[in-house]
Design brief:
The protein is α/β, with parallel strands linked by helices. 47% of the residues lie in helices and 15% in strands. It is globular, with a radius of gyration of 24 Å. The chain binds S-adenosylmethionine. It is found in: Cytoplasm.
Length: 445
């Protein structure tokens, strides 16, 4: 049986090869592993930690190894990254254990010839006081931030240019560390306060957040799906930014609403609750297996107004009647949720460059479904003006029948001075939620 460290190293190698999602990669390996819950928690902490700090760890390796990183065996790279992560960021692991376990792992993974090199690099690093090879901030500010915050240079340049140096550093800081866990009470069944009380009985830390009605922050949850309150459909897991997005669309009972890019369905469910589960809410997604996720979630929550359907949001379907409100939560770079999915920062900028046009095509098509007097909401979990403000600006200039619609009052309270207008970028530092962008537009005629 693999140890927790071996499983982590294998998961990291898989990520490098397949460029797949971190949670899917780890969950698959853990489910076949037979590890104890304590070992599983250790493997998860090490795996996500290494993914998050990889650029810092690689800078340390590059400053100490003669062989360039790309020429090392993947196993050796993974073992060194794990060993250094334990030395730098895991207080619970004694230094001697971090080194000895790394050496043992090299042997166990068939890299016995590299065991001496692993040993020497890690011991040398400890002996010298574990220094980070930070470039001089005055001479190479981007290089400094890159090593200090384990972030790629292109991202630092993008955020510096888009949001200014101070905001950029704040964003880099908040891209590290575990995000808070938020839930949305199924307000068709109970209030956030009543749900908090139910969860307390099950030993879960839960606090209703009155500034975002229906929202709670959870702590010490363990496996959410195992909770009776979850099985009974009393809540779904949803970040505050996504809850606010549904509130910005502000649907009313009895209306016709389309959620065009809806899976796995979090915003659809909140919309249905805001509509008191009365009306005509259709949630589309382009992938059949994802449509099933929306159906399953709506069933668990007992939301009868939700209809999930297969649909391509970029292609006009003339059979669809026009709607009162349309949500366009488009596929995006995810630069606002790096702390949840650290692999996003290892994408190459070229991989993201096609997104604004894809998003614009969806937004343009979505406009066809909005009634005169109806509302169109465009949103992303991206922190990138090309995917956000620039698409909205272009849309307004090419669609004179649409005009900016002010965001609801709750936004003024939460983001004073920033949300009077129709659009808002939410930064993780604002209220602890995911980075997010939303814009509300009204069809005048
Ligand atoms: C940002 S996610 C949506 C998250 C969702 N709104 C929620 O709150 O749970 C974008 C979704 O759009 C879907 N998608 C991508 N291209 C699409 C298209 N052309 N038409 C419809 N859905 C699409 C993806 O499968 C993905 O599920």
């Amino acid at each position: 049986m693999d140890t927790a460290r071996m499983l982590t190293a294998k998961a990291l190698i898989k990520m490098e090869r397949a460029k797949s999602y971190s949670n899917l990669t780890l969950d698959r390996l853990l489910s076949q592993s037979g590890l104890s819950s304590q070992d599983r928690a250790f493997a998860a902490a090490l795996f996500y930690g290494v993914l998050e700090r990889m650029l810092t760890l690689d800078a340390v390796i590059a400053s100490r190894a003669k062989t360039p990183l790309p020429q090392m065996r993947p196993e050796v790279r993974a073992i060194l990254r794990c060993g250094l992560y334990q030395l730098l960021y895991m207080d619970t692991v004694p230094e001697s254990a971090a080194v000895n376990e790394s050496v043992a792992l090299a042997k166990a993974m068939g890299q016995g010839r590299a065991a001496g090199f692993v040993n020497a690099l890690l011991r040398g690093f400890i002996r010298e006081g574990k220094p980070l090879p930070l470039p001089d901030r005055g001479k190479d500010p981007v290089g400094y931030l890159s090593v200090a915050y384990a972030s790629p240079r292109w991202l630092i340049k993008l955020w510096n240019k888009s949001y200014g140096e101070d905001k950029c550093e704040g964003l880099l800081r908040s891209s590290l560390g575990r995000p808070p866990l938020y839930a949305r009470a199924n307000t068709q069944k109970l209030t956030a306060e009543a749900l908090a009380a139910r969860l307390h009985e099950a030993g879960v830390g839960a606090r209703a957040l009155p500034h975002v009605p229906g929202a709670l922050q959870l702590e010490g949850v363990g496996e959410v799906r195992e909770l009776d309150a979850f099985k009974e459909g009393l809540f779904h897991i949803q970040d505050l930014s996504s809850q606010l997005c549904a509130m910005a669309l502000a649907p009313k009972p009895g209306e016709r609403v389309y959620d065009l890019c809806a899976a796995p369905g979090g915003k659809t469910f909140t919309l249905a609750q805001l509509m008191e589960d009365a009306g005509n809410l259709t949630a589309f997604d382009i992938h059949p297996h994802k449509v099933a996720l929306i159906e399953d979630g709506a069933k668990r929550l007992g939301l009868r107004s939700v209809r999930a359907a297969l649909g391509d949001a970029s292609v006009y379907d003339e059979a669809l009647p026009q709607a009162d409100r349309v949500l366009c939560d488009v596929p995006c770079s995810g630069l606002g949720i790096i702390r949840r999915k650290p692999e996003i920062k290892y994408k190459r900028p070229e991989e993201l460059s096609a997104l604004p046009d894809i998003q614009y095509k969806i937004l343009q098509n979505a406009a066809n479904y909005v009634k005169a007097g109806g509302i169109l909401l465009y949103s992303t979990c991206a922190l990138s003006p090309a995917e956000n403000e620039e698409n909205v600006r272009r849309f307004l200039s090419e669609h004179p029948d649409f005009s900016p619609q002010a965001l609801p009052e709750v936004f003024d309270r939460l983001f004073p001075g920033r949300a009077q207008a129709h659009q808002l970028t939410i930064f993780p530092e604002d209220i602890g939620s995911d980075g997010f962008f939303l814009a509300t537009l009204r069809k005048e005629r």
